[in-house]
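User: structure tokens for Peptidase S9 prolyl oligopeptidase catalytic domain-containing protein, please.
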Amino acid sequence: MGDTKSIRDLGYMAWKNDLSWMEAQEGPRWDATVEKGNKHFTTALAKVRPLIRTFTRELEHTSSKPSETASSWRGWSSKSEVFSPVNIWTHKSGLTLRTWDADMDDRQTLFAAAIPVEGGYERFRLQVFKMSSTPNKTPTLIHEVSHVGPYVAFLKKSSTLIYLGSDKDTRYNTVCTWNPGHETGTITTLYTIPDGQGDNNLEIRRVEDGSVAIVKTDLVTESMGYVIHNGLSWVAEGSHLIPLAHDTWVKNGKTSLGLPSDEYLESLSLKGRWAVTRSHGIRTIWKLGNVEKAEAMVFVWGEVANDVREPEKLEVSDIRYEPYTIHTTGRWSLTPTKPHPFICSYFNTKAPCFVVHASKTKPTGLLITAYGAYGTPTKVGNLIKRWRPLLNRGWVVASVAVPGSGDHDNGWRHAGRGVNRQVAVDTLCEAVRDLQEEFGVPAKATALYGRSAGGLLVAAAVNKEPGLVGGLYMESPFVDGLRTLTNLDLPLSVIESKEFGLGTNPTEVLAMAQVSPMEHIPDDGHSRLLVVVRTDMADLEVYPAEVVKYMTRLKGPNKYVFVSKDRGHFTTDFKSRAEDLAILYKGLSPSRDSRTRKVRKANSV
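Assistant: Done. Predicted tokens:
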């Protein structure tokens, strides 16, 4: 964990944190602190058990629609977990694998998967299975490698497997190949990130012609190369690279394929003959064909997912509908689109904002979610799925796409990242006030939600404007930004330096000092603010120590933190979400009137 001394002196700035001893995350004092917090949390849960059971049923029911059944591919079925990047792959034989990524060679004789290790840590092992000619026979594990990245891909028309090697947690710095052969096969290292580029990481991107692209990124600039017989052929550099074929790619969100110049290109398929652009949070799916002008087919308030291995299939998560699929073969077709029983609205004043609420009722509460980091588009397509219990009880749920997110163009992204992060905080505060006024919800009935880097954003907002909201709900939140940024022994402090700032750069350190939640908690410790937080001992992205430090600094009995084990950075499941929402709802809605009961009945599932 690096330097755990209470005083950190950078020469031009020094500050003290008397809770720094927690950063070791061990010893009797640490164990006692965690146990005390967990006990307080479970005591609160005991008072809302019936509500937890009801919330759990509602979340499970909403996420088990027929439109969300597992998809099939080459004798395997695959289904994503609701709250994590994990995909569950199941073979006809009954073999089930929890993976972050998986692939099969063209001859369908080998199946490879990046498997998360036990204990919840974001560490992976590569497993390669040999498929049997008998369809229902269990595949045989023939090769296994530890310390690898979360991506795998087979080269076209070959049994050559591409994967990434890892030299430390969350860093993937080598490109490797594995070829079957005698005993364990042959491993070759094609590329290693040079010394001096510690802020770079590697990704694998499949290409729909069967080639494999490698992207080296520092979270701002990408360099892309294609895997060739004896190494990599580097071909492009830009802010956003989309490989289309072994000799074709698009960079910086622009193309000449008949798309409007003011739309930012997110994804494109030459085989499927479609493109997806985004502008101010709204996506457009285009039909390609006419070079002079593409045809706008669907406008999406949410996400559009695709897999290059099935280029004529688009999976759509739109806030207004249950998930549906678009097939672009020949004449385009859509699976049935069933509207959700809620009103969905879009606002775009200071920032794009999507809102869901029940009809013909006065709102009883307001939950606002935000993220705003890494140029990642704000997830809005599944707002109803994730927050249904609150919607059923008359709450308004909104998601704000602040600067720093990937919801518009590169200018929007850079307007809220790095030294500009205060802009994102200011924008969120203004959006909260606007939504409260629009829906007539007071601050005491309003809550903010943020997970991971989104925790930095929402916690900074309540520091900037104490009394802005009545509740704060966070999962694995990045709340001790200043000490984390300046601890270069933590891998992510270097890898993510282009996003949050480099700990040896005074300008960037001072910018983080301006927003880092730990350093701006008011003297009363937000005593009137209800705070519900989850973290995990196996989290390698946001260490639990910074979360526990933050919660220890807050004051009042209305502060609830639970430190779990074996879940890592993705702690949520239906039960934990139901528990958290029950505490939040009970804390901000101490009494329920007949209007609330009517709302729940009208929108029951």
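User: Anything notable?

Assistant: Residues 7-61+340-602 form a domain with the Rossmann fold fold (CATH 3.40.50.1820).
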